[in-house]
């Protein structure tokens, strides 16, 4: 008799149930609704507003979830499939499962050293992490925490071209496997939850560690490049750092390395994103890096076609988690049209609205090659640090594996629209 292999779904269940027999429950809820509820209780008002808030009245966030609810998975039985292969490759990066952790800035609102903790959790789960350009730890430090697990770097295109080159060069040097250019945030959307609190983390020095650790940025801010003599710490600088500390836990420590805290903040606000960013500028990136390039924030088929014609290595269908344009099209609704426009070969990833392994299954069946998980991994971070990130990622992968088992899908390449039905009405 041959014993069927134990996939990640049954393995995760076994751990939880065995601990349950000893009276121990998971420190991180395995269902999305309770995960969100408990994380909210852990976060400050400013942290919750930034992480969970969306643009305008939140219609796009609701659309993202409604889009998944319009699809039904159709289980298949007696198929004889006992083993699943969740492995795949996107843009040259091998994945143990079709899941990456999405970049989310200003994580120090939740926990000090957030990026390092997320990296440790991602590495423990064997899931790549896309470092945020608005991270709270320098990319080099976060890269060390990833160990041998692959990671990518998200780029916001600055108004200063040498800064773009510096950030890309640093990402290459510390081992990033791809550059993800976010193109839907050339300016911040209208975010009432943040606005009602008057809370922009970057204005308080949170989420700008990629900049304050960058020699070109320090030059722009009037500080000496890295390696130069540090200017004296003034009373004004100390007061600024203390005010950051009082306003947001972790802010003080996130800015200790910045010799000119207030000037650094002002410089960041001047240069961080480029409202004039266009296809011509984007085309120059191919000659500026040898890394694969993915474009994040595509929702229109014509933009997808143009990106493919420009030679990018992948498209990420995304509405920024509903944080940029209110009442925008759901990412999942945009996916089918984009896949039809560009054909089956180009790499397409999806984010915005992903909460569960069943969501990942639906997205893959509709044409995505992999998915990015955003808010849920930050909720895990809030509840249990690095181990919370690990648990959230492993739970999503476990449910994906079990869903594949119960539909007879032996590999992620076997997922297609035949395993789905459109909901009536």
Automatic annotation (TrEMBL):
List the Pfam families.
FMN_dh
Domain (FMN hydroxy acid dehydrogenase) ranges: 24-425
Q: What is this protein called?
A: Alpha-hydroxy-acid oxidizing protein
Q: Specify whether Oxidoreductase is a keyword of the entry.
A: yes
Gene3D superfamilies linked = Aldolase class I
Q: Which UniProt keywords apply?
A: Oxidoreductase
Q: Which domain of life is it from?
A: Bacteria
Q: Which organism is it from?
A: Dactylosporangium salmoneum
Task: Give the UniProt family note.
Answer: Belongs to the FMN-dependent alpha-hydroxy acid dehydrogenase family.
Cofactor(s) the protein needs = FMN
């Amino acid at each position: 008799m041959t014993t069927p292999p134990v996939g990640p779904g049954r393995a995760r269940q076994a751990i939880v149930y065995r601990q349950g027999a000893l009276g121990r429950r998971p420190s991180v809820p395995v269902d999305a609704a309770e995960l969100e509820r408990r994380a909210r209780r852990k976060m400050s008002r400013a942290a919750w507003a930034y992480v969970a808030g969306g643009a305008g009245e939140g219609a796009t966030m609701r659309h993202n979830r409604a889009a998944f609810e319009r699809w039904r998975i159709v289980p298949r039985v007696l198929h004889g499939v006992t083993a699943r292969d969740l492995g795949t490759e996107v843009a040259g990066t091998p994945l143990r499962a079709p899941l990456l952790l999405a970049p989310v800035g200003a994580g120090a609102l939740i926990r000090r050293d957030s990026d390092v903790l997320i990296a440790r959790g991602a590495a423990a789960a064997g899931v790549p992490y896309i470092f945020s350009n608005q991270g709270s730890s320098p990319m080099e430090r976060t890269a060390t925490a990833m160990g041998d697990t692959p990671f990518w770097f998200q780029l916001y295109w600055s108004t200063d071209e040498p800064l773009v080159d510096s950030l890309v060069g640093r990402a290459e040097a510390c081992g990033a496997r791809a550059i993800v250019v976010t193109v839907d945030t050339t300016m911040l959307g209208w975010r009432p939850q943040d606005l009602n609190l008057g809370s922009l983390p970057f204005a308080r020095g949170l989420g700008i560690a990629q900049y304050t650790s960058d020699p070109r940025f320090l030059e722009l801010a009037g500080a000496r490049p890295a390696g130069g003599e540090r200017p004296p710490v003034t009373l004004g600088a100390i007061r600024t750092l203390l005010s950051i500390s009082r306003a947001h836990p972790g802010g003080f420590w996130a800015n200790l390395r910045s010799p000119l805290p207030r000037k650094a903040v002002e410089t960041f606000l001047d240069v961080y994103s480029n409202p004039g960013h266009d296809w011509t500028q984007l085309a120059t990136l191919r000659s500026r890096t040898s890394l694969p390039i993915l474009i994040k924030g595509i929702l229109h088929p014509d933009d997808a076609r143009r990106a493919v014609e420009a030679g990018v290595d992948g498209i990420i269908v995304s509405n920024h988690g509903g944080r940029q344009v209110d009442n925008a099209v759901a990412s999942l609704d945009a996916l089918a049209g984009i896949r039809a426009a560009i054909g089956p070969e180009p790499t397409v990833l999806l984010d915005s609205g992903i909460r569960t392994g069943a969501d990942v299954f639906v997205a893959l069946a509709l044409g995505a090659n992999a998915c990015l998980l955003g808010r849920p991994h930050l909720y895990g971070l809030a509840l249990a640090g690095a181990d919370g990130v690990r648990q959230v990622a492993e739970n999503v992968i476990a449910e994906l594996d079990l869903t594949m088992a119960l539909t007879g899908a032996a590999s992620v390449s076997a997922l297609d629209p035949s395993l789905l039905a459109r909901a009536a009405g």
